[in-house]
Amino acid sequence: MIVIKSKNTILPDSPGKYKTLEEFYQDMRDYEEIIFEYDGKKYTAAYYDNKLSIAEFNKPDTEQIFESLEEFADNFVIGSIRFKDLVTKIDILVH
After folding, report:
1. Cα dihedral 31→33→36→41 (10° resolution)
2. Among 5, 8, 12, 33, whose CB has the most other CB atoms within 10 angstroms?
3. H-helix or E-strand containing 81?
4. Structure confidence by residue, pLDDT tens digits, 14-62
5. Strands of 41-48's sheet, edge to edge?
6. Can you give the residue ranges of every domain in the chain?
7. Strand partners for 56
8. How far apart are CA 67 and CA 47, in angstroms?
């Protein structure tokens, strides 16, 4: 029998929240992928080769790639709000 263990964790009934930007950074380093929701839209973020890829969930044509976690936090915008300013407001669905 082969057992495959996934790094990802589906969160319980209520979505989780980050308390700090550093907590988000650590989550990306540990899990490498998260799915989150903000303002009624779901997003998937993947961290690999020290780059972060983000797109609206199931919309690959919306993908953006950032050279670092810090560049992502400073430059990814939802509405008119930079990610680093809304990180504590997103709902973490899967990590």
Report:
1. 180
2. 33
3. strand 81-82
4. 569 999 999 999 999 999 999 999 999 999 999 999 999 999 999 999 9
5. 64-66, 51-56, 41-48, 33-38, 91-94
6. 21-94
7. 43
8. 10
Say if pTM beats, i.e. exceeds, 0.90: no
Residue 10 has pLDDT above 50, yes or no: no
d(CA 8, CA 30): 10
DSSP 75: H
Quick one: which of 93, 84, 79 has its CA closest to 66?
A: 84
- The string of DSSP letters for 7-65 reads S--B--SSPB--SSHHHHHHHHHHHSEEEEEETTEEEEEEEETTEEEEEETT-GGG-EE
